[in-house]
Amino acid sequence: xxxxxxxxxxxxxxxxLAPLFMVLEVSMDLLQPFLMAQIVNEGVMKGDxxxxxxxxxxxxxxxxxxxxxxxxxxxxxxxxxMNFATDLRKVVFDKLQSFxxxxxxxxxxxxxxxxxxxxxxxLQMFVMMVLRSIRSxxxxxxxxxxxxxxxxxxxxxxxxxxxxxFIILYLLIRKxxxxxxxxxxxxxxxxxxxxxxxxxxxxxxAFVRSDFENNRFGQANEDYTNNAVRAARIVSFNxxxxxxxxxxxLVIILWFGAHQTWSGSLQVGDLIAFINYVTQVLFAVMMxxxxxxxxxxxxxxxxxxxxxxxxxxxxVDHQHADQQAIVKGEVTFDRVSFSYDGQSEVLKDxxxxxxxxxxxxxxxxxxxxxxxxxxxxxxxxxxxxxxxxIDGTDVRxxxxxxxxxxxxxxxxxxxxxxxxxxxxxxxxxxxxTQAEVELAAKAACAHEFIMTMPDGYDTxxxxxxxxxxxxxxxxxxIARALLVRPVILILDDSTSAVDLGTESRIQKALxxxxxxxxxxxxxxxxxxxxxADKIVVLExxxxxxxxxxxxxxxxxxVYQEIYRSQLGKEEVVYE
Length: 575
Fold this sequence. Notes:
The chain is an alpha/beta fold. The chain has two domains: 4-309, ABC transporter type 1, transmembrane domain (ABC transporter transmembrane region fold, Up-down Bundle); 315-407 and 533-568, P-loop containing nucleotide triphosphate hydrolases (Rossmann fold), CATH 3.40.50.300. 62% of the residues lie in helices and 11% in strands. The protein has helices at 12-44, 49-97, 101-105, 109-132, 135-150, 152-159, 161-199, 201-206, 210-236, 238-263, 268-309, 370-375, 400-406, 421-425, 434-443, 447-451, 470-483, 500-513, 549-555, 557-567; strands at 331-339, 345-354, 359-364, 385-390, 393-394, 407-410, 419-420, 460-461, 488-492, 518-522, 534-539, 542-547. A hairpin with a 2-residue loop joins strand 11 and strand 12 (542-547). It is elongated.
């Protein structure tokens, strides 16, 4: 909590003003019972109408000043807490942007969404409550002092009640705290199921699995509800138990206070004022109890936020990272191995050299490690052992920004963002001109279909580009990578949704536009890579063969088997 409270420092002025205005409101609240006692003792009991009017007018003025204090505190505390949440949310989001794929693998998407939304909102409410929380202790202290000045004996009665209230609060909080952690975890599950369903809604509809998804969401939702109800049930004991003690205390005070009034040792107005002060104290203690419960919930949220902020980044710039290491684009894998979280190795002792300007194709069965291998080049992951080098420099010694702006990547799944087609193509180069955008689109064979759309490049895409076909999304993704003119281009099965003719035109355009760039092409169709300068065959995470198409047809049984299974025994030549 102390660390997160540092986000309030930029707003220290309004952070201080909020409790100061609350002090003003509490002061006015403490005056009201005292003034009311004067009306009863001096006005009502003695029939002095002037005293009643004068003191009543003063009570109205005091109430108005208290209103100003309460309103001021609410405005300043709300402003400070909302700014706190805004800054914290931005810092957490920025932290997520620096996560590597391996960091992101540790958190589920639904959990991160919960942390950025519900958990930060919980902390926002906590900050606002803390800035207003000075009311309860001040009201308690002030009311106790005023009560003792009225009747020392009666004050002792309810003074004995306060420890009982705090003991009950402690037991409730101790019982409730563990349940809130479980509640947030169950909310993570609800968000995860919801996110998966919305992202894959077309698959759900295609396979008629709405009933299954309804049951899956219903189970997660019910699980969350049951835990939330269990936590609420524990907290619900707070109010009735404290009210019982409050009412019991008032009965005792009225009993003894009435005897003092009849004996003449305590005036009626003083008894009424005393009861008001007692009520204020006990309600203040109840508010402290609610505040402690909120703190326990906020502590859970704070821990979850700090878990993200304190996550060690496994991909950071080297102390002396080179900012101009990549010039030609020669890529070398030197005995590289890789595993996810220390599990079985996905890549095993990979050694490969891709000369500058070469096109290297990578073939292999599903799960052979093709995508993982190329993701080591822009450091989406780091090799577990061995070295990946570009132009003779270890990628871990190259500044990340320089590395990733020099390497263009088109992943298997085409991810587009809400906005226009133009904005999506120039995502990696926002200042690109229309001519540059069109040149990249033409090279990716996307210009023709874009121009057939009503608004051309200004066509607004839906979420994740839902209003485009799979092949269209792939071509826009390729254009986005081509626009930055990368020194190294990685195409990770990025033409799987386009026909052979379009794929052939794209590859021809790539050869012309990126003549001097090194290209890595992962493909399932052997016809897509037959013209590559070097073809690498991966099998169980190892390189089983490498060479040109002609060489592999003579030396690699695995490559021959792939060729025969796709094209038949006779070699087919594509123009």
